[in-house]
Write a sequence for this structure.
């Protein structure tokens, strides 16, 4: 049976440990985005064993051995044995499959504890496959490897990097592996403009509409045959009509942490080494880079005009933050944290916005802080008088918003798809309420909210900074929840296209791109 969206989300967020064993490969793929770090190194066996042991002790149960090409590590069999003895319940290798063409190697790997192999294999047409790997004969060797693995009943999946040379045959490639080898799991990877992929980008780059058409055809075949398909780095708007195949947004964290050295250098020194017009246009983390640049620029130029205090502040961190915000900044804060900013806000022009869970102590906090606005998903705030209230919508409180003229609503984002279904009100019921009651709403694009649209403001979070400087992980998490917005390919016909961010990725995954109707 095919996996439903919740099964896929659970699998995508499973705790798994990726371990690079080599910086060397026996293929020379013309689309390799990792070639810039392929310096020929074979990472030491003892070093790898220490990482394996440390990973298991840290709670990881699934080990993924990668490279380069992990199977050419001289001690790969020993590493598999060691991982199994250390307690890993599932050991997987990401490989081009060529070493598995040798029956003895395959047998030893399986007996040592190997459970799964993901084969990077990009066409069922021999001449196309060999051209993509730039190794004549690689196709036949990988086919032998698959056949040997099948004899041992090893779990096999296929990775396919989408490009101009194989895109037209994508459906047929999936059908080839499914019908001939009963392989029923595929990961379809969007071309990434790094390494040799960047060098060969003009011959490999695909048109978005053609990619959308090819994916639609391939996914249709997969649905008919109960084949599991994952997508990797594929722009969400290319999957319109098949939104359930959009990659789990949390996977972008792997991309961010994989480039943590680059991002860290930018945050500390202002140098973003990989940035170029040719590369950035189609880079999967482009939006995150732009967010990172915005965060750093606003901080250094002291142009932070909205900030959320997310937790207690040490004096050093408080000084770092308040030395960089504008004199009349808005501060979003919960009542229990007011004491950490009282010195900074007393006798100032700063605007306090209270973020509350219930009304206990709220009136006192309003008076003490001279607060002008209260935000909550608790509908009890509607009983407050003489203050502006913004209600964060949920399934429970949407009815309470009726007959409350002048109220401003906030359409919330969800951290994952399960929360999306539990928390978010249906789009149609929201449209009905705001229209009937003439209510304003933020965080929905104009094509949905129409004349009820209000701009949605974003807040610099206090935990972006700690004693040592910027905190990449917290910035990345905020991006996932508050900045990860997308538009349909159709949206370029909308009169608000240049002004609109689109809608949050989890709303798209739930409701589909169809809710976006370009305004002409």
């Amino acid at each position: 049976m095919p996996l439903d969206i919740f099964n896929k989300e659970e699998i995508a967020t499973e705790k798994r440990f990726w371990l690079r064993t080599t910086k060397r490969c026996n293929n020379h793929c013309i689309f390799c985005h990792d070639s810039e770090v392929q310096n020929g190194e074979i990472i030491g066996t003892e070093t790898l064993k220490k990482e394996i042991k440390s990973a298991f002790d840290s709670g990881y149960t699934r080990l993924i051995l990668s490279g380069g090409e992990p199977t050419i590590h001289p001690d790969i069999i020993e590493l598999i044995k060691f991982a199994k003895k250390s307690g890993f319940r599932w050991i997987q290798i990401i490989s081009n499959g060529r070493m598995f063409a040798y029956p003895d190697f395959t047998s030893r790997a399986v007996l040592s504890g190997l459970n799964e192999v993901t084969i990077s294999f990009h066409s069922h047409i021999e001449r196309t496959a060999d051209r993509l790997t730039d190794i004549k004969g690689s196709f036949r060797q990988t086919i032998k490897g698959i056949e040997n693995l099948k004899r041992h009943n090893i779990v096999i999946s296929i990775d396919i990097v989408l490009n101009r040379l194989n895109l037209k045959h994508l459906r047929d490639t999936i059908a080839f592996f499914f019908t001939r080898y009963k392989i029923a799991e595929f990961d379809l990877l969007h071309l990434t403009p790094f390494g040799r992929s960047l060098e060969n980008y003009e011959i490999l780059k695909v048109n978005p509409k053609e990619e959308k058409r090819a994916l639609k055809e391939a996914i249709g075949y997969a649905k008919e045959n109960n084949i599991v398909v994952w997508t990797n780095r594929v722009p969400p708007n290319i999957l319109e009509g098949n939104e359930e195949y959009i990659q789990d947004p949390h996977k972008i964290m792997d991309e961010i942490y994989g480039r943590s050295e680059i991002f860290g250098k930018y945050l500390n020194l202002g140098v973003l080494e990989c940035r170029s017009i040719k590369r950035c246009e189609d880079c999967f983390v482009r939006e995150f880079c732009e967010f990172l640049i915005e965060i750093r620029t606003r901080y250094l130029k002291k142009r932070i005009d909205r900030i959320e205090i997310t937790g207690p502040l040490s004096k050093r961190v408080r000084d770092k933050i308040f030395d960089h915000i504008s004199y009349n900044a808005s501060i979003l804060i919960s009542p229990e944290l007011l004491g950490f900013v009282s010195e900074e806000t007393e006798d100032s022009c700063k605007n306090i916005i209270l973020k509350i869970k219930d009304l206990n102590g709220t009136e006192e906090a309003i008076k003490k802080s001279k607060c002008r606005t209260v935000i909550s998903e608790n509908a009890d705030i509607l009983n407050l008088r003489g203050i502006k209230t913004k209600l964060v919508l949920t399934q429970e409180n949407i009815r309470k918003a009726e007959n409350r003229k002048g109220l401003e609503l906030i359409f919330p984002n969800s951290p994952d798809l399960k929360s999306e279904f539990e928390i978010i009100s249906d789009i149609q019921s929201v449209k009905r309420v705001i229209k009937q009651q003439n209510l304003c709403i933020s965080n929905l694009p104009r094509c949905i909210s129409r004349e009820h649209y209000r701009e949605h403001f974003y807040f610099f979070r206090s935990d972006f900074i700690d004693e040592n400087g910027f905190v990449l992980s917290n910035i990345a998490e905020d991006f996932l929840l508050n900045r990860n917005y997308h538009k349909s390919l159709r949206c370029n016909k909308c009169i608000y296209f240049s002004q609109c961010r689109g809608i949050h990725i989890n709303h798209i995954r739930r409701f589909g791109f169809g809710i976006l109707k370009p305004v002409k």
